[in-house]
Design goal:
Layout (H helix, E strand, L loop, with lengths): L3 H21 L14 E9 L4 E8 L5 E7 L8 E8 L2 E8 L4 E9 L5 E7 L4 E7 L4 E7 L4 E9 L5 E7 L4 E8 L2 E8 L4 E9 L5 E7 L7 E8 L2 E8 L4 E10 L5 E8 L5 E9 L2 E8 L4 E10 L5 E7 L4 E8 L2 E8 L4 E9 L5 E7 L4 E8 L5 E8 L2 E3 L2 E10 L4 E9 L5 E5 L1 E3 L1 E8 L3 E11 L4 E3 L3 E6 L3 E5 L9 E3 L4 E10 L3 E5 L2 E8 L5 E2 L3 E2 L1 E5 L5 E8 L5 E8 L6 E3 L2 E6 L6 E2 H7 L3 E8 L4 E6 L8 E2 L4 E6 L3 E3 L7
Parallel strand pairs: 30-38, 40-48
Antiparallel strand pairs: 1-28, 2-3, 3-4, 4-5, 6-7, 7-8, 8-9, 10-11, 11-12, 12-13, 14-15, 15-16, 16-17, 18-19, 19-20, 20-21, 22-23, 23-24, 24-25, 26-27, 27-28, 29-31, 31-35, 32-33, 32-36, 34-35, 36-37, 36-38, 39-41, 41-42, 41-46, 43-45, 43-47, 44-46, 47-48, 49-56, 50-55, 51-54, 52-53, 52-55
């Protein structure tokens, strides 16, 4: 049985390790570049007389921090479990348990009511204890008194607010797991293989199953990082990282949205060299990497958290420099930042993310013996992307919608568009958050409009986009067109022929602007009985009727712009609309023609294709190319390709 004196000696060594490192002056295993992209704020929560040997942080529904911590009362070792929380009135500190030397290895969680619950070690009686606030006072419970318990506990609450705790039995060197349900507390020994435990970290998956990371001290110079998890079939144990080095100290575990584990920890050798590592599991198994190769990085504790995008956030102590550091990984890779460099800081840090996915960290100082709290001051302005207008070119009096995407982790406070008119006047209008941010208005002043987007987040950081432009153009002329915007020319058409006509507005500089509402008129002459289906709108359905004659269709916008098209209706011709890519036509004339002659006659035709029934192959001719021309006889079906619409009269123009 390990004597209490030995545990005290181990803790004594941990307290003075940072002072020794300064004297040793160790170098770095591999350089780590810090990218200072954030501003951090730190403050002293509690000024103590002895080092803080454990901290644990959680955030409530209003993003206020709650911290449990162990005042070691060094060197008398009569420490207390303390609890600090912040509200609108500031910080409040209370003693949770002072009955003996209590509070080592504490871990805190908040239940669904926002009440704190804490697991910790009663070192005096060598028990695992659990404290909770019931709304009126603190209650403490001894969970396990069957062994000699030390090291670090880890607490998580399930979906029913029941507690789950991982911890170490330092009598038999086993990893143990305690959980509560309607039947009370239950104790499970998870791993009894060798010398395991001391550092443990627990998290629950989406099904409330426990996952535990812990240390296997092995023997000699070998130490492994191990991982145990439970599912419907029972407990499973794996080695996440192993080898000849010491791996698996200062463990912190989190579970991602796919229920895969992520673990921060340290690796070292028999020499006093430790550095920060990270292990994760996916469908391909376990993967490991060194994050910060500064010697003694992470040696005073690591803490890991995952945000809603499964991006990683890790707090850890850099004992070589006595800094508190923060590592963050997103899609672009890892970023490292110094959070606090004011003295011997960074001991036993704990990290939590707020509702805007910003990190908050609790930690201790070795020399000044303070509990400290750091939070990131978001100085990053909103990101403004996908800026544009629909349409970018509009007719005078038409509506233009400005749109953009605005994102910020802290949330958007205000979003506006500043628009400068062609005459130099400007407006500053609010954008509506409808998926993207939008603003719509009608514009009657012709010319170029410039605009930019301005946005602030909920913390007051502001950002602007680049300068963009849209154009309002006057109508210079009107044309009766196909839907493809091509003008319908005066032409001969067959009887029983139907065609949709559109009123296209055009500008001399910009070309086609839009289809516009007009007044439609039809004039029949020479016996024609053609008809249209409406007298107003952007388009009209024209029918040639069944008598020969002249039918004139006129479009008038009432502002001095009009156009007409004259159709000669002739029952001896065969008409159809071609274009808009591939069209199927038939050759019904009694004379023979060829693909080149026909293709030259049909407006914008570039390819004529037919299916040869004898050879069961397609024959294609590219118009204007002196190859592969073929004869066309009565009754043949053909495919023609023309991008622009037009009316074909059924001939090749030679008859």
């Amino acid at each position: 049985m390990i004597q209490k004196k030995n545990r005290i000696e181990r803790k004594t060594q941990a307290v003075f390790c940072s002072l020794l490192i300064v004297l040793i002056g160790l170098g770095a295993l591999m350089p780590t570049v810090l990218t200072e992209r954030s501003v951090w704020s730190s403050e002293i929560v509690d000024d103590l007389d002895s080092p803080v040997w454990a901290t644990s942080i959680a955030l409530d529904s209003n993003d206020y921090p709650h911290i449990s911590y162990f005042d070691s009362d060094w060197p008398s070792l009569d420490g207390d479990l303390l609890y600090a929380y912040m509200d609108s009135g500031g910080w409040h500190v209370t003693t949770v348990d002072s009955n003996g030397n209590v509070g080592e290895g504490c871990s805190l969680a908040l239940d669904s009511s926002g009440y704190p619950r804490i697991s910790y070690i009663d070192t005096t009686n060598e028990n695992l204890k659990y404290a909770y606030w019931d709304g009126g006072s603190w209650q403490t419970v001894t969970v396990d008194n069957t062994g000699d318990y030390g090291g670090y506990t880890s607490l998580a609450l399930d979906s029913s607010d029941y507690a789950h705790i991982s911890y170490s039995d330092t009598t038999d060197y086993d990893v143990k797991y305690a959980y509560m349900d309607t039947g009370g507390w239950h104790i499970v020994t998870v791993d009894t293989t060798g010398f395991v435990g001391f550092y443990t970290s627990l998290a629950l998956d989406s099904n409330d199953y426990p996952h535990i990371g812990y240390t296997d001290y092995g023997s000699g110079s070998s130490k492994d990082l191990k991982y145990a998890y439970k599912d419907g079939s029972g407990w499973h144990i794996e080695i996440a990282d192993g080898g000849t080095d010491y791996v698996g100290d200062c463990i912190s575990l989190a579970i991602d949205s796919n229920d895969y584990p992520h673990i921060s920890y340290t690796e070292g050798t028999m020499a006093p060299e430790y550095y920060l590592r990270y292990a994760y599991k996916d469908a391909g198994g376990w993967h490991t990497e060194v994050l910060d190769g500064t010697i003694w990085a992470g040696r005073t504790g690591t803490s890991i958290a995952l945000d809603n995008s499964d991006s990683l956030h890790i707090s850890y102590g850099d004992t070589t420099n006595d800094y508190l550091k923060y590592a963050y990984r997103d899609a672009s890779g890892w970023t490292y930042e110094t959070v606090d460099s004011t003295g011997n800081v960074g001991g036993r840090s704990s990290i939590a993310l707020d509702s805007n996915e910003q990190p908050h960290i609790s930690y201790g100082t070795w020399v000044t013996c303070d509990l400290k709290y750091a939070s990131m001051i978001d100085t990053i302005p909103p990101t403004i992307t996908n800026v544009g207008t629909t349409p970018a070119l509009q007719i005078e009096g038409g509506e233009v919608t400005v749109f953009c995407t605005i994102t910020d982790k802290s949330g958007i406070g205000d979003a506006r568009v500043n628009i400068t008119y062609p005459d130099g006047s400007s407006v500053n209008e609010s954008l509506s958050p409808r998926g993207d941010y939008t603003y719509s208005a009608m514009y009657s002043q012709p010319g170029a409009y410039t605009y930019f987007i301005w946005a602030t987040d909920t913390l007051g950081n502001s950002g602007t986009s680049g300068l963009y432009q849209f154009t309002i153009a006057s109508i210079d002329y009107l044309q009766v067109t196909y839907h493809s915007q091509n003008e319908i020319s005066d032409t001969t058409i067959s009887t029983y022929f139907s065609l949709d006509c559109y009123a296209g507005a055009f500008n001399d500089t910009y070309g086609f602007l839009a289809f516009v509402d007009v007044t439609w008129n039809l004039q029949n002459n020479g016996g024609s009985n053609a008809s249209i289906n409406t007298s107003s709108g952007e388009s009209v359905a024209f029918f040639s009727g069944w008598y020969d004659g002249i039918a004139t269709v006129t479009a008038d916008d009432g502002s001095g712009h009009s156009d007409n098209v004259v159709f000669t209706v002739d029952q001896t011709v065969y008409s159809m609309v071609t274009g808009g890519e591939w069209s199927l036509i038939g050759w019904w004339q009694g004379y023979v023609t060829d693909a080149e002659t026909l293709g030259q006659y049909i407006h914008d035709c570039t390819v004529v294709t037919m299916f040869d029934r004898e050879t069961q192959t397609f024959m294609s001719h590219v118009v204007g190319v002196p190859h592969d021309n073929f004869t066309i006889t009565q009754g043949m079906g053909l495919f023609i390709y023309a991008s622009e619409e037009s009316i074909w009269d059924g001939t090749d123009g030679t008859s």
